[in-house]
Structure formats: C-alpha cells, structure tokens
Predict the structure.
Amino acid sequence: MTLHTEEYRGHGFAIGLLTGTFVGAGLALWLAPRMASELRKRVTDSARDLGRQASEHYEQATSRVGEAVSELTRKGQDLRDDVADVVARSAHEVERYATAAKSDRVTAVSVGRSEVSGRRA
C-alpha cells in the first residue's frame, strides 16, 4: 500500500502542478489585456494630473510675478513723482535766487549809477 500511495502522491503532485500552470496561464492571458489597459489608463490619468498641477503652479507663479511687477512699478512711479517734485521745488528756489540776485545787482548798479551821477553833479 505504501507503494501505491507514493505513486499516487507523485502523480497527484504532477497533475496539480500542471493544473495550476494552466489555470495560472489562462488567468494571466485573461487579465493581462485588462491590466495593460488599466495601467495605460493610470499612466494617462497620472500624466494628465501632473500636467494640470504644473499648469496651476505656472499660473500661480505668473500671478505672483505680475503682482510683484505691478507693485514695483507703482513704487517706481511714486519715487519718480517724488523726485520730480523735489526737482521742481529746487528749480523754483533757483529761479527765486536768480531773480533776487538780479534785483540786487540791478539795484546795486542803479545805486552805483546814482552815486556816480551824484558825484558828477
């Protein structure tokens, strides 16, 4: 009986191994196309999500850069206006000084002429 049992076990193992091989191969063939299409779908979805995220980050960066440029432009214009005001005030001061100096010179020349005229007389 032991011989018969051992032969049966040997045949049973070989039959189980072959059955498992065929069932596994059949399942692999049946599931492989589906797995490949699912893998393609996952890769496509991941690439689409990555592209969407990259686009969102690009838009956010563009918005931040635009805001920074606008702020710098505003500050630059304010500085330009301040400098223009200082230059205008300085120009008015120079004009007043020149007018005063001219008036003093005219007065000094007039006084000098009248002194010269008075001496002659």
